[in-house]
Amino acid sequence: MLTSILEILARKESLSMTQLANEVGCSVRELESSLDQMKHMGYIRNEQFGQACSSSCGKDRGSGHCEGCGFASSETFTFWVLTERGQAFVDSKLK
Amino acid sequence: MKIALVGNPNVGKSTVFNALTGSNQQVGNWAGKTVERKSGLIKRANQQIELIDLPGTYSLTAYSQEEIITREYILREKPDVVMAMIDASNIERNLYLVLQIMELSPRVVIGLNMMDLAQSAGITINTTQLALALNVPVVEIVAAKGKGIEEFLTEAIRVGMLELDPLQGEVSYPEELEQRIRAMEGQLADNAEVTRYPLRWLALKRLERDPEIGQEWKSSTPKSRNSKNKDACCDPGDAVNYELVETVALPGDELLQTYEAEGWGKDQFEMAFADAKYKYISQILPSFRTHENPSKPTWTDLLDKWVLSPIWGYPIMFLVLGIVFWGSFVASAPIGGAVSQGMAWAADVIVSILQWGHAPDFLQSLVRDGIFAGVGAVLAFVPQIAIFFAFFSFMQDSGYLARAAFLGDRFMQLMGLHGKSFFSLVSGFGCNVPGIMATRTLEDPKDRLITMLINPLIPCVPRLGVMSAVVAAFFPGSRGSVVMVSLLLLSMILVMFSALFFRRVVKQTERSAFVMELPLYHIPTLRNILLPTWQKTYSFLRRAWTFILVASIVVWVLSSYPQGVSMNATWAAKMGGWLSFIGEPLGFDWRIMVAIVFGFTAKETTLSTLGILYGVAANASQSIAQAMTGAMTPLRAYTFLVVYMLYIPCLASVVTTYKESGSLGWTSFGVAYNLILSFVMGWIVFHGGLALGFQ
What we know:
The complex is a heterodimer of chains A (about 100) and B (about 700).
Chain A (H helix, E strand, L loop, with lengths): L1 H9 L4 E2 H8 L3 H14 L2 E6 L27 E6 L1 H11 L1
Antiparallel strand pairs in A: 2-3
Chain B lengths: L1 E6 L5 H9 L3 E5 L6 E9 L2 E7 L11 H13 L3 E7 L3 H14 L3 E6 L1 H6 L2 E3 L1 H8 L3 E3 L8 H12 L14 H14 L10 H9 L3 H10 L4 E2 L18 E2 L6 H9 L4 H23 E3 L7 H9 L5 H44 L4 H19 L2 H17 L1 H14 L7 H10 L1 H6 L7 H10 L6 H14 L3 H29 L8 E3 L8 H35 L10 H8 L1 H4 L6 H10 L5 H9 L10 H8 L2 H13 L4 H11 L2 H28 L4
Parallel strand pairs in B: 1-4, 1-5, 5-6, 6-8
Antiparallel strand pairs in B: 2-3, 3-4, 7-11, 9-10
Helix pairs in contact in B: 3-11, 5-11, 7-8, 13-14, 13-15, 13-21, 14-22, 14-26, 15-20, 15-22, 16-17, 17-19, 19-21, 20-21, 20-27, 20-28, 22-26, 23-25, 25-26, 28-30, 29-30
């Protein structure tokens, strides 16, 4: 299962957790557990992508790095990506 | 008797430890580590028991201090029994550690905690079946309520007092792995060190090239040393290598080299063992765990089947965007009209006061034709922009925005854009400045550069606001939402093709993919819609009183002087005239060109500039929409929208690109690209439209 997840991640296609769980053939809970373990082992990493504005920029100071932050979305996206080690592992499997 | 308490973090270990030991605890640190060590003494059935609370850990590899401490304790101190606590509501994650503990210690008792949480989530665990699957005693506990703790300890004492080690379940690995494990066991069996460890576990760790195990062998084996000295050194360039070099051969090294040559290195073994354990867990799970209505999909699952579908997802996305724009136009129309009339009335009142006070003519003109025409033109569209922000907040809080971003990324895959780049583009929908800054998360400088260069093609909120104002004027009703969606579609297509073009220019490496965690759908709260709507509207209003006010005064000066001449002979008209060679092929008069130039400072100023140059306040009976529709045809308006959407966002975004890229050359290239692309697209739209008979 873990190897399958890495191989799917190495495809140049993004997936949601549910889609990946369906593809691997496990539940989302099992998938989360596997992702956590592989993160721990250093094959994948968990990244959070939010806006570049700091929390003090919420009210648009109109200068410096806060320019336009009043308009920026506060949405934060969480996603998993392969690390170099994970990529090397998949590459070795494909050889 | 020694008992070790082991488990994942937050599994309730400390609660059990505190309940069993009470105040009879010793707290310190593990030798040489910063991790807390807790032990306590308990007396039960004439037995003095030392209970050790080992650090919470998810596995027993050698990646963290907690893991090393836990496994070293079990290996070296050899507790009589290990009490392994697991969370019933997240049993998949917890069993992985249990399987590793079972490879280390022959005496294990499982405490199944949080049964109440599992039950409330519709999960039922048959403890008898779990015990049979692993061949380990299992005790149900609810640590937070103190239930089952004493029984857990009693069972541990019973197992600890057994004369012979019980037979536990064992993970069976695929045959090709089992053969290699057996071969390694054969190599290690003759070594005296082995008696300290379970042989199978040691073989697994050697195959994984566990660094801690190797280290231990090095320190416990007599070292043979080869020394190099200056005289012995034949190569003059080798003069730095005078240190003693350790040449300790670890048992099984030759076998490892053979496997390495066969493609079985450290990572391959480590992953294969972990994989087998997870496979084993998913095999045994159905025998003891049942989930109430496991196949019943949630609302999120049902909706995602359509919303994230590669076929239906995109039509749904454009339909949602269409509804957002349609709602913005329709709902705001009466309020916008009232604000326009209110602004005209306010201008009349203030100018009357100025006339009553015998204020000079230029001041009256500045207030009426400059400030009210300019700032008023922008303020008239604040209701529309606020409603758009409210819809945007609704999409975000309901969980749809994350899905739209996810779909957008799949759209970008076609052009080989880096997965993470898309999130910078999503930020660009708010404002391009934070969007460009968000590229900092991209490790590859080429990815960063490409994302920075395409970010300005994403229409930011101020741009969308001005665009929707112009669209509302020229394409009222539901036609407006179709026009807005067509413009956004054009923007996405150009982002795709620009990404493809820049990949060739910058020679970007291959894209990488990701797995995204999507939030559950839910009905947004009123607060979560109103608060961000107010914050964004407030930002817009602040800019109206700063940027737009200053720009309005400058445009008024340019369009009012030299005094006494007609509008077509003012400085503004001359300035627009210089740019007529660009504007005329697109059907733009000088006013449009001046508005485009002023939009460079901040996009909203385009609207205020149009308000002044079309003389909105001079004729209080007409709104900016009426003034513009009288001077432009719908085709020219659409052409203007295309150019406006695609040319440089604003001065701040250019400065940010320069700061972030550190290259004047790439910044200039980006500016030139945007300008050329916008006017070329404008020309295509205008002449294409004329050829198709549009006006």
